[in-house]
UniProtKB/TrEMBL annotation:
Pfam families tied to this protein: CoA_binding, Put_DNA-bind_N
Lineage: Bacteria, Bacillati, Bacillota, Clostridia, Eubacteriales
GO CC, alphabetical: cytoplasm
Location of the CoA-binding domain: 80-181
Entry binding sites for NAD(+): 91-96
Described function: Modulates transcription in response to changes in cellular NADH/NAD(+) redox state.
Keyword Ubl conjugation: no
Subunit structure: Homodimer.
Entry protein name: Redox-sensing transcriptional repressor Rex
Family named by the database record: Belongs to the transcriptional regulatory Rex family.
Highest rank taxon of the organism: Bacteria
Segments of the chain annotated as binding DNA: 16-55
PANTHER family the UniProt entry points to: REDOX-SENSING TRANSCRIPTIONAL REPRESSOR REX (PTHR35786), REDOX-SENSING TRANSCRIPTIONAL REPRESSOR REX 1 (PTHR35786:SF1)
Amino acid sequence: MKKYSISKQALQRLPSYLNYLNWAKRENVKNISSPTIASDLKLNEVQVRKDLAAISSTGGKPRLGYNVDTLISDIKVFLGYDETDKAVLIGAGQLGRALLSYNGYEDYGLEIVAAFDVDNAVVGKKFKGKPIYHIDMLDRVCKKNNIHIGIITVSAENAQEACDKLVECGILAIWNFAPCHLVVPDNILVQHENTAASLAFLSMHLREKMKNEK
Ligand SMILES: NC(=O)c1ccc[n+]([C@@H]2O[C@H](COP(=O)([O-])OP(=O)(O)OC[C@H]3O[C@@H](n4cnc5c(N)ncnc54)[C@H](O)[C@@H]3O)[C@@H](O)[C@H]2O)c1
């Protein structure tokens, strides 16, 4: 299939298309057009048409649009959901254990194979079948399992140290849940999961709505 490079914004829209198409499939929709998708998702029609044209293996048919099953499969292939990437997690605390217990990431091509911590209360234990090793084992486990994704769920103060260790162990992509900036070499991608920023956005939206309704 063709694999054009697409913008970061388009890439971030693909999971929404996928959720929507999975819903449409459950509703027994067989074919769907980009204007319908755009209207239901409240997106720009031209944008949706361009996004789907970039990842579709077949292209949409005039009047019929896209075959829903094929489009779902094309998006999954484009996003790499059809292959599983193994990941390690540093910090088996509250959030780390929540992520370890969530099986749904496997649908998105991500399998967390092990966690690492420094706290003797958790090191050596298993959580939801996933081993929690001492951080000193990180290099051995990453190299043995050819792991290139690291998830950081330690406090902000400990995040840079965790990040440096991941980079030393050959990790190329980092999913950071700690609320802090991380310094990494140019070839390492860091994706920040900033829940505080999302909450600030929700709260601002709510305040504006309430102000307008007064
Ligand atoms: N708990 C949440 O709902 C939540 C939500 C969003 C973001 N966060 C962020 O996620 C991070 C973790 O939060 P939490 O509530 O799970 O904290 P937590 O204190 O429960 O867990 C942190 C874990 O990291 C371990 N740790 C500390 N230093 C380490 C190191 N150098 N190497 C390996 N392990 C180390 C600790 O022993 C502990 O088990 C924080 O940065 C927090 O701001 C948490």
